[in-house]
Specification:
The chain has helices spanning 18-22, 59-69, 89-109, 125-137, 161-170, 192-211, 214-217, 232-245, 247-250, 274-284, 306-310, 315-330, 336-339, and strands at 4-9, 28-31, 39-43, 48-52, 73-77, 114-118, 143-147, 149-150, 153-154, 173-177, 222-225, 266-268, 289-290. It is of the alpha/beta class and 340 residues long. β5, α3 (89-109) and β6 form a beta-alpha-beta unit.
């Protein structure tokens, strides 16, 4: 059965020293030890961020591992720490172009196995639109990964609407990924920003797009949210009740019921628990859930598709989760991966 993993991250094997290029810091760089297959991600002051293994930047290693898991297609996107929304707009554009060129080159090396999502300098909607057109028309990308917020802007901010309009017109898909998690200053221990902050960030993004009228104004915009939609599916009842109880607060920019938008966006299957995935299917519907693993990171699913298999879904549901929903989100046909 065709399996498409919509949530995988990749980095170039080398990252420029952006601090030297731009004259200020805050960017990520690599530190590699001779003879080691891994490398460390550091900020440009030398502070350790994360160790990444060869499968994060070597396409051949990725393909070998996915062959072992019998997953045919990976949708590639950068690591959210690379978004660089805080950078000066022109510098953010430079970073985005560098990352997008790399992902495009990886896709072209194995077009039947890889699909590319770019990144955009959303601190400048004008430059983001420019790069979106280049990414789709020149680089062959299918869409873009964006953060759950853009600096101080939630995804409901009207400044972003021209970007959404352009992406809808061009037929691009969007993957919304949590990053720069809220409340980190209150969560210094126990990896809580990733365990608590990430689900909250994803729910923030979904609710912002619902209540901000994004889905209503751009009904053809195909948006997927990482990590199973975060806290949103499990708090939908509260969100709906809040809309009904206090429309004066919730229905300011969009008077459509939150539940009416179920089926208007996608999520991935990365919820780590059989009961949670079965609940997710009941709430959002099998047609709106795509296999996603967060490969190659430890908070992801180490065996792509294993959780779906463990749920003992019927064959029809498995097909939707493994590839049909992803094909709809990407707006491609299954034959794309045999004719490319």
């Amino acid at each position: 059965m065709l399996k498409i993993d919509i949530h995988t991250h990749i980095l170039p094997p080398e990252i420029p020293k952006f601090k030297e290029l731009f004259g200020y810091g805050g960017f990520i760089q690599f530190k590699k030890e001779p003879g080691c297959s891994h490398c460390d991600m550091l900020d440009d002051n030398g502070k350790f961020f994360r160790r990444v293994e060869e499968n994060c930047f070597n396409p051949d290693t990725r393909l070998k591992q996915y062959n072992e898991h019998q997953v045919q297609v990976q949708v590639l996107s950068t690591i959210p720490v690379m978004f660089s929304y805080w950078a000066k707009p022109q510098d953010g554009l430079y970073v985005a172009q560098f990352l997008n060129d790399h992902i495009s080159s990886v896709v072209k090396s194995s077009p039947q196995r890889f699909i590319g999502l770019g990144t955009l300098p959303l601190q400048s909607p004008e430059l983001a639109i420019k790069e979106a057109k280049r990414g789709l028309n020149e680089l062959g990308l299918k869409g873009f990964q964006i953060g759950s917020h853009i600096n101080e802007m939630n995804l409901s901010d009207k400044k972003l609407f021209p970007v959404y309009e352009t992406l809808e017109e061009l037929g691009a898909c969007l993957l919304v990924h949590p990053w720069d998690m809220m409340g980190q200053e209150k969560m210094p221990n126990y990896w809580l920003p990733w365990l608590v902050g990430m689900p909250a960030e994803t729910s923030l993004a979904i609710c912002s797009m619902i209540f901000g009228g994004v889905f209503k104004q751009f009904p053809k915009l195909r948006v997927a949210f990482a990590h199973g939609g975060g806290a949103f599916p499990f708090t939908l009842g509260r969100i709906q009740h809040g809309f009904e109880a206090r429309p004066d607060l919730c229905a300011v920019d969009c008077d459509t019921s939150p539940k009416d938008f179920i089926g208007k966006f996608f999520v991935d299957s990365l919820v780590h628990d059989k009961n949670s995935l079965e609940f997710l299917v009941k709430v959002l519907g099998k047609e709106n859930i795509c296999l996603g693993t967060d490969y190659p990171f430890p908070l992801g699913e180490t065996t792509p598709g294993k959780l779906i298999q463990e749920c003992n879904f019927d064959l029809e549901t498995q097909k939707w989760l493994y590839h049909r929903a992803a094909l709809n989100w990407l707006n491609v046909k299954a034959e794309y991966f045999t004719k490319t």
